[in-house]
Each structure stands twice: as C-alpha cells, then as structure tokens.
Design brief:
Layout: H1 2-12, H2 27-34, E1 41-45, H3 58-66, E2 71-75
Parallel strand pairs: 1-2
Helix pairs in contact: 2-3
C-alpha cells in the first residue's frame, strides 16, 4: 500500500532516493534512530482543525527537538 501511494511521486522525481520501511516499533524511537543516517525526515501531522492545526503533535514535536537531521512537518490540506 505504501509503494502505491508513493508511486506517482517517485515517477515525478526519480532523482530523489526513497527508502520504504514499515515497522510496529514506537515512532519516536525508530524515527530518531533513522534520522542518524537520513538527510531529511518528513513526518505528518494529524491536523484536527482550527487552532490545533498550529500545534505539533507529540511525535512531531519530539522529532523536531531530537532528530539528528532536518525535520519537515507536513500538514494535510
């Protein structure tokens, strides 16, 4: 399912290397570890609407503060 969702973007930007990984580990732990070898970490935000859209979720907030590479928090449209 992940590959299907990313397929169009990979075709549009073939020069961007993407690694697909799916895990059941705690997101904070796993993403912080992966950030040690990453150039960029992109995470989503749940975006519950209104003022809450301006706030980061707990995982996003943790990663912004502790990741070993730049972090982009993407808010849905």
């Amino acid at each position: 399912m992940l590959a299907e969702h990313l397929a169009g973007w990979q075709e549009k930007y073939p020069e961007v290397q993407v690694t697909h990984k799916v895990s059941v580990a705690r997101p904070r732990t796993l993403l912080t570890a992966w950030s040690k070898s990453a150039q960029l970490l992109v995470v989503g935000s749940r975006g519950r609407g209104g003022f809450r859209d301006l706030l980061l979720g707990s995982t996003s907030n943790f990663l912004v503060q502790h990741a070993h590479c730049p972090v982009v928090v993407a808010h849905g449209a």
